Fold this protein.
Amino acid sequence: MAGERGRGGADAGQTAAEAPPLLPVLTLTEEELLVLTDDDLGVVPPRLRLPDTTEGAELVRTVALRALMARGLVSPLPRATSILGAEAAGSADGVGWEAAEPLGLTLSLRALATAVLGLQRVLGPRVEEVPAGRADETESTTATRYLHLHPQIAVIEDVTTDGMHSLLTVLPDRFDDAVSDFIRPPEAVPGTGKPRRLASTGDTAVADLLTSLGHPTVLVEAAVLSGPEPVSQMLALGPGGCFRSADSIVYHPVDPDAAIADLVRSALGGS
């Protein structure tokens, strides 16, 4: 279930470095999450396009609800209360239901979060791993994580491009870890020297910038989604140094751990 791992701090005598990685333990399809949230994914953009017809959309909802029931994630309401409770608890195909715990609490925390930090990570190969003259054969990978934050608890939501949503609740002592585990490469070191700047013209401007940033292995767009408009910044992390930019043009050297702590602090500060 979504609340069975990662909610507490490290065991007594366990250092932060020894704390287990934060791996979401419950995965929902987007169709299932749409049923559970009454078609409201909040700030998370949908990854799937559902059928345009009423009949098609209702069929998708019915199949998703049956899958949730089969997995024990929702329970049908007693028939005596089904009609009265269906609208409040949720319904599909005339069947009232309620989410099992701790899934119900996790979904409530997700929906009512006072702040949301969105992270989109692009992970590229190390320079030494790219065969000479064959850079086009090496693909980058992308991943997305949302932290639905409250001062005393948060919900991690990892979302794939094909609409899988993986959830986990964490307590404040793991907030920074929830970001670090996702974006910080193990070989990352603090950036040094002067700020680096993206040249305004030229076909090689981006390549030149990446070279000046020490060929980062991870690029991250981080956005605080709490206010009326997202507040975004870019991070470039790797063995050649770590850098942060508020405008995607000028990149300032930063310590990776300090930059991660600042991300969480700025998100909570907007709550």
Q: What stands out?
A: Confidence is low (pLDDT under 50) at residues 4-13, 82-89, 126-138.
